[in-house]
Design a protein that fits this description.
Elements: H1 2-10, H2 21-26, E1 60-62, H3 69-85, E2 88-92, H4 98-112, H5 116-120, E3 131-133, E4 148-155, H6 173-198, H7 205-209, E5 216-224, E6 236-239, E7 245-249, E8 257-260, E9 266-268, E10 276-280, H8 282-287, E11 297-299, E12 307-315, H9 342-352, H10 358-363, H11 368-372
Parallel strand pairs: 1-2
Antiparallel strand pairs: 2-10, 3-4, 4-5, 5-12, 6-11, 7-10, 7-12, 8-9, 8-11
The structure holds N-oxalylglycine (OGA) and nickel (II) ion.
Keywords: Iron, Jasmonic acid signaling pathway, Metal-binding, Oxidoreductase, Plant defense
Family: Belongs to the iron/ascorbate-dependent oxidoreductase family.
GO molecular function: jasmonic acid hydrolase; metal ion binding; oxidoreductase activity
């Protein structure tokens, strides 16, 4: 309890004055400040060592049809293969209108183009993260990422960010984000049925385990400004997503997302037109008892162009303890994780910021309160 109180206290505000990366980039500086320079081992590989020559890419799942049993089985099999092999895939023919996708992305681009004082009105704090932010984690002296973001809760209704957290400009931002969010949440629900079925469970099993109709959804608009020294830093450090599923709408022409393959190799994702990029989050790794693993990913930046992405995080209801499904626990495959609620897990993750997969690994066989101390 004391540890939780102490943590709540340190989460009231950022440990250092907040610097907007966009403002730094626009100041035209030739060298990035020291606090953005990553240690050698975390820097992006020179382009020649990248995957361009290896021909590796994340799988593509076509969601068209799939209503009938047989098609549904094939689809579940495709999803299963993508989750086992990569934990990351693109979905096409997903049913979300391309015009809505574009409208949402452009609304957020419009926000980031506003003058700085206009954006500062929505400056966020580590207590809820809602609003305009420039760092994840509250560790003093941490090496920071080359990106700004805007974070909001979309659902359930009771958890939705109050009006004051939504930008007044662009005027359509709220409406378009809500409509977009509703559609993408529908897609997440469909993906959950497929994931559940692909593990031989009842279609509704995953959704129920994560809180039924009360699952959460959050939106993060990520903005990665141009960077004068892209080889020294990252737009977003390696991390796995803490929730259930993430549906990412990537920039339509600037690449940047990299996924870590099993062999440790970083692969740059080449988004298909109008596709979403989906990845398995930590909660699916927990519920599936590690049959499906959340995968590390990161973002690289470049000197020529800014990049924007919209990440929709589909999360469990905050107060439901999530643990490996008993059907997936056997004497040969004992339960790997203690039950924990997403509210607890999120506090833990928010304090530490992006840390690869270290956060989930540390929980194996432990209780979250031990880790929060
Ligand atoms: C995230 C994320 C990737 C990107 O927001 O968690 O991984 O391309 N974003 O912005
Ligand atoms: Ni992510």
């Amino acid at each position: 309890m004391l540890a939780l109180l102490a943590m709540a206290d340190c989460m009231q505000d950022w440990p250092e004055p907040v610097v907007r990366v966009q403002a730094l980039a626009e100041s035209g500086l030739a060298a990035i400040p020291r606090c953005y320079v990553k240690p050698l081992c975390d820097r992006p590989a020179p382009a020649a060592d990248d995957d361009a020559s290896s021909g590796l890419s994340i799988p593509v799942v076509d969601l068209r049809g799939g209503g009938g049993d047989e098609l549904g089985d094939q689809l579940a099999e495709a999803v299963a293969a993508a989750c086992r092999g990569w934990g990351f895939f693109q979905v096409v023919n997903h049913g979300v209108r391309p015009e809505l996708m574009r409208a949402a992305r452009e609304a957020w681009r419009g926000f980031f183009r506003l003058p700085l004082p206009e954006k500062q009105k929505y400056a966020n704090s580590p207590r809820t993260y809602e609003g305009y932010g420039s760092r994840l984690g509250v560790e003093k002296g941490a090496i920071l990422d080359w990106g700004d973001y805007y974070f909001l809760h979309l659902s359930p209704e009771a958890a939705k960010s109050p009006a004051k957290y939504w930008p007044a400009n662009p005027v359509i931002c709220k409406e378009v984000s809500e409509e977009y969010g509703g559609e993408v949440i529908g897609l997440c629900e469909r993906l959950m049925r497929l994931l559940s079925a692909s593990l031989g469970l009842d279609e509704t099993r995953f959704q129920e385990a994560f809180g039924g109709a009360e699952c959460g959804a959050c939106l993060r608009a990520n903005y990665y400004p141009r960077c004068p020294q892209p080889d020294l830093t990252l737009g977003l450090s390696a991390h796995s997503d803490p929730g259930v599923l993430t549906v990412l709408l990537a920039d339509d022409h600037v690449h940047g997302l990299q996924v870590r393959r099993r062999d440790g190799h970083w692969v740059t994702v080449q988004p298909l037109p109008d596709a979403f990029i989906v990845n398995v989050g930590d909660q699916i790794q927990i519920l599936s008892n590690s049959m499906y693993k959340s995968v590390e990913h990161r973002v690289i930046v470049n000197a020529e162009e800014e990049r924007i992405s919209l990440a929709l995080f589909y999360n469990p209801r905050g107060d439901v303890p999530v643990a490996p499904a008993p059907e997936l626990v056997t004497p040969e495959r004992p339960s790997l994780y203690p039950p924990m609620t997403f509210d607890e897990y999120r506090v833990y993750v928010r304090k530490n910021g992006p840390k690869g997969k270290a956060q989930l690994e540390a929980l194996k066989g432990q209780s979250i309160t031990e880790n929060n101390e």
